[in-house]
Amino acid sequence: MKCVAERLEVREKVQKPGYRFEELSERVIGAAINVHRELGPGFLESIYEEALKVELSEYGFRFESQKEVKIEYLGVKVGTHRLDLVVEDILILELKAVRELTDIHLAQVLSYLKATGLKVGLLLNFSKPTLEVRRVVK
Region 16-35: what's the mean pLDDT? Predict the structure, then answer.
């Protein structure tokens, strides 16, 4: 667990202009690794999501869980995406607990990026002996 001073330091860095996606991604991946190390593979995605929310809170990150994003076609709402997590309003996290990540999973993150106008997402698969991470950039 991070001490209060470390969490405040992370929060200050995140709020600085020019904060880079790479540093945020690295810290979020570190949080996900902590969750995977503690829980291991075999749980449902929802369990990993709840644990990651605890870990992200410990790091001092702002995040939204199960954020709804409206999808429009020619100005008409045609559906809704539900994002697992959005960290600091700039990084989408899509959590999986599957045997293998496929092109469909990558396409899903790309569609989330397109729908939100955000640029970077992380696809995290907790079902492997080692956390599987794919960075997706639009």
Answer: 83
